[in-house]
TrEMBL record:
The keyword Transcription does not apply. The lineage of its organism: Bacteria, Pseudomonadati, Campylobacterota, Epsilonproteobacteria, Campylobacterales. Residues 255-336, 361-486, 537-616 form a coiled coil. Residues 5-217 form the Rad50/SbcC-type AAA domain. The keyword Lipid biosynthesis does not apply. It comes from Arcobacter roscoffensis. This is SMC family ATPase. It comes from the Bacteria.
Amino acid sequence: MILTKLKLENFKRYEQFTLEFNQGLVGIIGKNGSGKSTIFEAIFFALYGELKTKGYKEVVRNANATSKDPVVVELEFEYEGVDYSVRREFRGKTLSANAKFFKADELVTTGAKEVTTSIVNLIKMSKDAFLHTLFASQKELASLSSLKNEDRKKMIRKLLGLEKIDFIEKELIEKSRELKREITAFAEFLMPQDEIEQKKKQKEEYELLDKELKQKQDTKIKQLDETTLKSLYIKKSLDLLQQTKDKKQDLFSKCELLKSTINSHLQNSDKLKQELESLDLKQKELKGLESVKHEYTQLHEAIKKQEELKQADIKKQSLLQEQENLREHYKKSRDTISRLEFETSAYTQAVEKQKSMQETLEQLSQSIKKNQLDINKLSSQIAGEQKLIEDINKKIENIQLLGKDSACPTCTRPLLEEYDLVLNSLEQIVNKTEKEKIDTLKEQKELLEVELKKLDETYKSLSDENLELSKNINLMENQKRDLLKEKEYFEKVKEQGLKNKTELEKLENINYVLQEHEELLEKQKHLKQKYEYVLSLEAMLKRVDSVKEDLEKTNENIKKYELEYNEKELEYKSVAYDTKQHEEKKKEYEQILKTKDEISNELNDIKVQVATMQGQIKNINQALSNNDKQLEKLGSKQDDLKDYDKIKISLASFKTKLNAKVAPRISDIASTMYSQITKGKYQHIEVSNDFDFYIYDEGKKYPIERFSGGEVDLANLVLRIAISKTLTELSGNNSVGFLAFDEVFGSQDENRRIEILEAFHTIKEQYRQIFLISHEIEIKEMFENIIEL
């Protein structure tokens, strides 16, 4: 795998950045904070969709980018002679992730998780293996020798992936302990052999008793069946007798009902005859009162005409009064219209004046806003300059705390003569900023604040005048609306007056006399009682035909019901029913049911005993079966324990062989490079199977802790390179052709740095690209290719 090109957009400190990677030994040089480490963080992010540190969404977007701007990382690389590219991006406030993966400009897959899976399948390397194999930082190198023995072993085993074997071995031990506990638990639940024999003997006894009970049960079932058949035969005869009884009782009830119905109809016939005789007398009385009805009708018509005259006269008087009121309203409305027209005559002029005044106010408002924005901008600039001074003062304090002889926290080299130069430079910046920029900005701010105060006063005065004018305009608008309503009302008064005049002309000849009307009402009052009696007689006589019809139907029904009664009476007498026979059959049926219940109870008792025996047999079978299952499970657990023991032995043997292979290989690679860098001063670095490190000096081996800081740094470097190369060989992935080291020169002098670079040249054949990150500007001439940030 060879890196060819990287594009960044709004990623961390980079807004727009493109970088092409060369092959060979490549130096990535830049001051602290220039974004050197960010480049490889972006490479890791492009391949695996993650940053080294969690919570990347809070810091991944560039500080100058908006929430609408996308965050884009695009990486191009070559793998086994084929060109690939991957593009990852975040969009929106929530930084929604998306990704695309291309092979030779052809889209392979999309989606963040899908792209990561495709890349892992391609390069056959997980994110952890990628970091441990291809990347190494100064901190990681130092930890190879500075950590305690046990912590260093854990770290190296993790780099080599051996901690997974340790984890499996630990799991196997724990699983073996768990199996032993389970085997002990299963054994405790097994039955003794004498108990098993006893249960088998009980089972044989229960089965023999169960067989005898079932024979008794079959006998009782046969007796119950015979009794049930006999009861059914008796029940059939009993049902036939009951049906005969029910039929006879039903016929008797119907005869009684018909007899009652005939009597009711006879009574109704007598009442209808009496009513007809009474109606004949009323008919004769009505003939003598026919003149009353005619006289009352004529009187009613005359009163009706008087009522019409009375209503017309009331309307006439009402119209005359309304006309008088309308004359007064007409005069008052005319005067109101004249007054309102005078009071609203200045409305148009006032509106034009207000429009001009509002334009002036808008101009003043815009000037005030602009002035306020300028003041705010100056305030922000002043605050920014003051914050800059505070930051520089803090830096001065930190440098003073460090002192001249202290080492740089990044490169570990002494500050020396640069100490005073840095302090003087920072103090000059503080004094210049304080004297020139802040004083100038404050002076500009004061002038703008005076101008703003004048504008506010002018705006307030003009606003008050505009408010008073608005009140007058609102008053005139209300008066204009009142004028319009008053004119509408004036027209309605005129229209109603003309309408009333027309109506009065129609009612001019109306002549209503109250005395005549009252005399007619008095006559009607005296004649009304006789008239109402005549109406009641007429209503009564309307029932004559109906009563005759009802009488005829009633007589017909009497004849019909008498005939039906005679038929039912004959049928009732013809039904033969023996009460004594019925009672005897009932007693016989009750006796057979009693016998049936006794047999049924005996049968149920036997069934309970059979069920009890079968339950006992089932419990014994269940106990024996459970014991067999426990024996089977115990055997299975014992077999599993044997398998785990075999695996533990094989895994321990595998670990021994793997350590015997890995440690010597790391030692060989590291020894060759270390001897070359130190010009043969140190011939060999030994790596034990437990990953303890020893350096040979003049044929004797010593722990790595014995040597100086520079020598230890070199040893850490060659060991880390050896571990990376061994990891690559173990994984069988020789297609990943680059390594990256961050700040590996440490406190080495110039000669030793040249030796380190020469050591890297020796492994260029195995790695087509080797990236070295450093903040040491003076070493950039030592590299074949330079990326300067």
